[in-house]
Specification:
The chain has 87 residues and is an all-alpha fold. 86% of the residues lie in helices and 0% in strands.
Length: 87
């Protein structure tokens, strides 16, 4: 519940920064947001670490391998094309 409240507060600060037209208030709002991020950096990092540990990566490694192979094939195709152009 406290995380939801924290997200709402950060969202309200961002909306406040966006809506207020004065340079001074925008600067103060950005500084306040940076201060809150600095104060709660450990909690943020802990939460991000939890999310990444629980994330199911699944077939991302095979997709990455396929992407690398595709890029290599494109490179070799371009090399062959250039070598065929030379006289």
């Amino acid at each position: 519940m406290s995380q939801i409240i924290a997200w709402i507060v950060v969202l309200l600060i961002v909306v406040f920064i966006y809506k207020v037209g004065s340079f001074l208030w925008r600067t103060l709002g950005i500084l306040l947001l940076l201060f809150l991020l600095w104060v709660y950096r450990e909690e943020i990092m802990t939460q991000l670490n939890q999310w990444t540990q629980n994330f199911r990566w699944g077939d991302l490694s095979t997709l990455g391998d396929q992407l690398v192979q595709w890029l290599k094939d494109i490179g070799s195709t371009i090399q062959r094309w250039i070598s065929n152009l030379s006289f």
